């Protein structure tokens, strides 16, 4: 049955059956054989009708599912149609059915390359010198090296192919791609034309020609080439995808949708089609739809690197930087020098505050691409955040030289100049940025504010008036004008400018607040309140306005009204984070710990990925004395804020309070990893190493600090601490004196005092610290130390004298008041109980205050009141052995010997050493 017109193959068969109907009816209804279906599929393929060819092959495989030739051809057709995932599946089935690797590997390699599986190509497809398909294998390996970034190895193999055959299109195209990567577009174009001269209808050559034109910004010419491919092969899904990509790049989303639909008709399950649909969704801001599409692609083809890159960008847009980073790192592992992925990774690190990581990403890229303005801007912003203003200025200067008309670059350069204190040069850059883009509000505002700070009021007003002509409806400009008048003490003009801002936007809060401040300065708080309430009447649920009213009430010493506004703001805006955080903080300040904690827990549950409510919850737990809960919350916070050294220092402090010294040392060292020059961390590290008995390690840290910062006292002070721990007070004294010589401050004199006392030079110690306090009577910390040392030495009268002097200057110092009560009690002074009651009245939820008051009551016979106070103190500070001992004693005095025994047994089992251990053992022996 000859078929001169393959497109009419099915029709030809129908006509033939009709002609033979009378003579051989049964034969006309027979199903075509597998061989016939495969032959027809081949003819469809040659005419570019891939969809029809695939249908024929699927029919063939229904009848003969184990036909390896049909499987192989179907796999090759899927490659033609742009569906590499289905291609790989069919080709591997052909291999399993007995097809030889020589037959299958060239097509299988193409499928893997289309999915970005370069490593699999190199691992599975090897050179076989005796094979007639060796050239195809060389081409595949060369393209795999090329895709993986090994241009040198790829070039060797492509040149080998050219030596074998001078017109080898694969080699010419491969070398063209290398030329493109090397920034030689003219050379690439010449190689592509050589390939097309021998193979004018080669689809790969045409496609690369279109891609090169697109890279050169010649979109119309590129579209013409892709359309030429479609004239040759109307069902070519890849050409439709290429056109869709062109349209997406140009922002022509409707046209892109049409091309994607056409591609989907030819290859409905193709990962390439799914990918371009996700790209369109991403560009149109439908990030969730893009994410779902990409997840579908990656479930089917986990190694499809374009989708791995795109899902990183989508996750970043969705506000999920950790997930974005995971995908980008995976993509960069396969494409180590990919600049777009690297920029996104750097921006994630910048947002998290990991500045060293940003520079580690950017600086190698800048060596290869020194003129990349985005990289230079990223480097500038990173140095700016690190407060290295000179380096930031250098980067911004390079960027602005490359793009002299880019206003944002001149604005950024101005900020770096301001950081260096070069306000004149900063103003010049801001003026240039404003001249380049007068509509850029931020730059003009920055210029006006800089002039205002420099007290160049006329220039500031002139700048704002020029902006006013272009942006007459912007209340910010009039608010700033009011600020300039206010700086000149022109209160009438200031008020008029603020009123003008409110005329444009009656709810403009900065102007409202400025007017309220003017009202307060004129002793008219009621007018300020009415102003805010009038605005609130226009927007009754405005959380910022209710917050402003709360602040006003607080400033007028009206906490009840302030609380009412905060509670209303949170109630009327149940999903809003800011008013609820403020309310919880207010509860905390007011001592309403349970309310604060309940609200913080609710906030954290409803905003699990937001650090603010978690930080608030941790702070409340810490303030309430629930250190274990605070540690857990701060640990979660550290997983959200991975670049905060101070967060790890807070965790270390809690671990120390819980006596977890090993954990604290680990946390301190994490902080030092994030910020190697963090002095507080090095000081704490030495203290922890000393507690651990690791004197040599502690000494190494101290001396390392001395070498790096000989101008600071810290290194010498820390070495002195090590010597004190080794019971070498005289040697330590020399180091402390050296530190004190660098910086004559109270804390260092305290160390000198400690060393003198430990060396037995008590008179000299007292003379030194006494002289210091006479010369520096405001140094409450040193006086507090002296009082505490007297208390420890049981010099109660001397301790009382120092505490009383301290409280004359700082009457609300709760620790001093509590210690004074204890000192009075030990000295049998009748002022003990009233002083303890004063401390309790100030902080009824402080476990140390509760313990002191209860113990004084207990010693004075007030067991009935003492016991519940100690029970509460034990709940608030469950890990304090002293409070636990006092509770055991109170239980014994109350007559509950069984509970007292249980309490003391638990205490002694859990704590091997604490000051009152002997007393606790003696009491237990009586029970």
UniProtKB/TrEMBL annotation:
UniProt-listed InterPro entries: PEP-CTERM_TPR_PrsT, TPR-like_helical_dom_sf, TPR_rpt
SMART domains linked: TPR
Ranges of the TPR repeats in the UniProt entry: 373-406, 475-508, 645-678, 780-813
NCBIfam families registered for this protein in UniProt: PEP_TPR_lipo
The protein's name in its UniProt record: PEP-CTERM system TPR-repeat protein PrsT
Keywords carried by this UniProt record: Signal, TPR repeat
Ranges in coiled-coil conformation: none
Record bears the keyword Signal: yes
Signal peptide: 1-26
Gene3D superfamilies per record: Tetratricopeptide repeat domain
């Amino acid at each position: 049955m000859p078929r001169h017109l393959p497109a009419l193959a099915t029709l030809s068969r129908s006509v033939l059956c009709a002609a033979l109907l009378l003579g051989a009816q049964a034969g006309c209804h027979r199903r075509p054989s597998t061989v016939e279906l495969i032959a027809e599929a081949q003819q469809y393929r040659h005419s570019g009708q891939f969809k029809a060819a695939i249908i024929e092959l699927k029919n063939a495989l229904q009848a003969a599912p184990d036909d390896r030739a049909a499987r192989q051809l179907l796999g090759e057709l899927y490659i033609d149609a742009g569906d590499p995932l289905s291609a790989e599946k069919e080709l591997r089935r052909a291999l399993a059915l007995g097809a030889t690797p020589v037959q299958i590997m060239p097509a299988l390699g193409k499928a893997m390359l289309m999915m970005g599986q370069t490593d699999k190509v190199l691992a599975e497809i090897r050179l076989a010198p005796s094979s007639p398909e060796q050239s195809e294998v060389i081409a595949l390996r060369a393209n795999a090296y090329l895709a993986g970034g090994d241009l040198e190895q790829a070039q060797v193999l492509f040149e080998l192919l050219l030596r074998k055959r001078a017109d080898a299109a694969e080699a010419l195209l491969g070398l063209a791609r290398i030329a493109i990567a090397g920034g030689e577009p003219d050379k690439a174009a010449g190689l592509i034309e050589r390939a097309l001269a021998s193979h004018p209808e080669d689809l790969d050559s045409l496609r690369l020609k279109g891609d090169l034109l697109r890279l050169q910004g010649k979109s119309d010419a590129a579209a013409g080439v892709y359309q030429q491919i479609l004239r040759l092969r109307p069902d070519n899904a890849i050409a439709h995808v290429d056109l869709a990509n062109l349209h997406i790049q140009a922002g022509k989303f409707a046209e892109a949708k049409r091309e994607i639909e056409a591609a989907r008709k030819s290859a409905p399950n193709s990962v390439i089609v799914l990918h371009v649909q996700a790209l369109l969704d991403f560009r149109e801001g439908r990030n969730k739809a893009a994410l779902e599409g990409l997840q579908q692609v990656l479930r089917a083809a986990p190694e499809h690197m374009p989708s791995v890159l795109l899902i990183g960008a989508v996750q970043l847009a969705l506000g999920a930087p950790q997930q974005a980073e995971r995908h980008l790192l995976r993509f960069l592992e396969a494409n180590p020098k990919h600049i777009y992925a690297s920029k996104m990774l750097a921006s994630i690190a910048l947002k998290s505050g990991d500045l060293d990581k940003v520079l580690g990403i950017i600086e190698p890229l800048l060596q290869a691409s020194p003129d990349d303005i985005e990289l230079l801007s990223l480097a500038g912003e990173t140095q700016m955040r690190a407060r290295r203003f000179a380096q930031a200025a250098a980067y911004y200067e390079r960027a602005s030289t490359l793009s002299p008309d880019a206003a944002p670059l001149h604005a950024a350069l101005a900020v770096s100049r301001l950081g260096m204190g070069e306000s004149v040069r900063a103003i010049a850059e801001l003026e240039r940025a404003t001249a380049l883009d007068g509509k850029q509000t931020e730059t003009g505002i920055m210029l006006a504010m800089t002039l205002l700070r420099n007290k160049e009021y006329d220039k500031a007003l002139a700048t704002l008036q020029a902006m006013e002509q272009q942006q007459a409806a912007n209340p910010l400009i009039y608010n700033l004008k009011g600020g300039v008048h206010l700086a000149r003490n022109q209160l009438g003009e200031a008020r008029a400018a603020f009123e003008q801002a409110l005329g444009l936007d009656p709810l403009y809060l900065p102007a409202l607040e400025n007017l309220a401040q003017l009202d307060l300065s004129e002793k008219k708080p009621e007018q300020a309140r009415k102003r805010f309430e009038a605005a609130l009447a226009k927007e009754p649920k405005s959380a910022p306005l209710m917050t402003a009213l709360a602040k006003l009430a607080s400033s007028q010493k009206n906490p009840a009204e302030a609380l009412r506004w905060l509670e209303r703001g949170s109630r009327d805006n149940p999903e809003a984070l800011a008013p609820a955080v403020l309310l919880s903080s207010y509860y905390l300040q007011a001592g309403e710990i349970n309310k604060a904690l309940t609200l913080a827990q609710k906030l954290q549950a409803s905003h699990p990925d937001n650090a603010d409510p978690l930080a608030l919850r941790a702070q409340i737990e810490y303030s309430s004395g629930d250190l274990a809960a605070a540690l857990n919350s701060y640990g979660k916070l550290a997983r959200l804020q991975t670049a905060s050294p101070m967060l790890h220092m807070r965790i270390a402090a809690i671990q120390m309070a819980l006596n977890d010294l090993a954990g604290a040392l680990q946390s301190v060292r994490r902080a030092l990893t994030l910020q190697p020059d963090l002095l507080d961390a090095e000081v704490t590290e030495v203290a922890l190493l000393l507690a651990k008995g690791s004197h040599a390690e502690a000494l190494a840290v101290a001396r390392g600090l001395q070498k790096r910062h000989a101008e600071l006292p810290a290194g010498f002070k820390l070495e002195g601490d090590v010597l004190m721990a080794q019971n070498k007070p005289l040697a330590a004294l020399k180091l402390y004196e050296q530190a004190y010589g660098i910086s004559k401050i109270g804390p260092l004199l305290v160390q000198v005092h400690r060393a003198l006392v430990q060396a037995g030079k008590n008179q000299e110690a007292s003379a030194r610290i006494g002289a210091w306090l006479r010369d520096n009577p405001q140094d409450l910390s040193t006086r507090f130390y002296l009082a505490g040392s007297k208390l420890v030495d049981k010099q109660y009268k001397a301790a009382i004298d120092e505490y009383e002097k301290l409280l004359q200057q700082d009457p609300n110092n709760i620790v001093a008041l509590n210690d004074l009560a204890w000192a009075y009690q030990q000295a049998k002074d009748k002022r003990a109980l009233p002083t303890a009651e004063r401390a309790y009245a100030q902080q009824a939820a402080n476990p140390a205050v509760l313990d002191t008051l209860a113990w004084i009551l207990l010693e004075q016979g007030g067991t009935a009141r003492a016991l519940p106070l100690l029970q509460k103190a034990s709940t608030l500070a469950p890990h304090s052995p002293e409070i636990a001992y006092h509770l055991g004693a109170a239980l014994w005095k109350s007559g509950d010997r069984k509970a007292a025994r249980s309490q003391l047994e638990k205490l002694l089992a859990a704590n091997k050493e604490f000051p009152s251990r002997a007393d606790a053992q003696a009491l237990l022996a009586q029970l």
